[in-house]
Amino acid sequence: xxxxIKGKQxxxxxxxxxxxxxxxxxxxxxxxxxxxxxRLVAFGDRHFPHTLECGDRIILRLIEDLQPHFIxxxxxxxxxxxxxxxxxxxxxLIGLQNELDGDFSWRKSIAKVSPDSxxxxxxxxxxxxxxxxxxxxxxxxxxxxxxSEDSMFSAKELGWQILSRWIWKDLLMFIHGDGQGISSPxxxxxxxxxxxxxxxxxxxxxxxxxxxxxxxxxxxGNLLHAIQLGCLEDPEKASYIxxxxxxNWTHSLGVFYLxxxxxxxxxxxxxxxxxSRCIFNNTVYK
Length: 286
Ligand SMILES: [Fe+2]
Ligand SMILES: [Fe+2]
Prior knowledge:
Elements: E1 2-5, E2 8-11, H1 26-29, E3 37-43, H2 53-66, E4 70-73, H3 90-93, H4 96-113, E5 118-122, H5 125-137, H6 149-152, H7 155-158, E6 160-163, E7 165-168, E8 172-175, H8 190-199, E9 202-205, E10 212-217, E11 223-228, E12 251-259, E13 266-273, E14 278-280, E15 283-285
Parallel strand pairs: 3-4, 4-5, 5-6, 8-9, 9-11
Antiparallel strand pairs: 1-2, 3-12, 7-8, 10-11, 12-13, 14-15
Helix pairs in contact: 2-4
Bound molecules: fe (ii) ion (2 copies).
């Protein structure tokens, strides 16, 4: 895909991170990307097969345009209600493979537009916790390689690293956020703020399906970010939501610019999905 910049035909792939490298040389990103910064895209709570219809398209195009060095998936990529302990019908007990297959196709699409980025998938409650519980009830499953998250998500093949949290330069922590206290949908930033205040680190949290952002100034002038990113799940498709019109779920993702050199710092750009579209960097994604 090409676009004209100052009369020259320029590849959208300009500035694409080289495999295994997370530095961007000025010659590759000048003009199109902010010089001296690595780019990161974060999104989460896709909850396949309840995924927001426009969400995949928007994120794929944005990744294609931004060519990030890092991609963080905040967790809950599939619903995995088959693994839950809630009462369910027989039809609800099967279908996990279908969800994993849907997730595989999604990650394959990401690999196609961003083969060389460092990709991190965060552990969560919908899959990780439920899987661990089922395994703890059936200890013979414990050493079976195909029961691991890595194997189920084909992580190695698709280039993803599965972690409980990911921290950049001791400054910015990405975490799914389950088990970090009860959050109130009326106060979206509450849990992220509590983590920021308790641990003195900027936090990007997922899990609550709400969106919010606060800045706190530390005594030394450094800024601490409390960021709560929304979900990519369509509340109309989630059968356990009785009144999808009156929940506080919102759809959003985040773009981050991480400084390449000390003093390390970053910039956060929220991307809100509304009316099946999102505007970022003078472009409408839909
Ligand atoms: Fe979720
Ligand atoms: Fe969650």
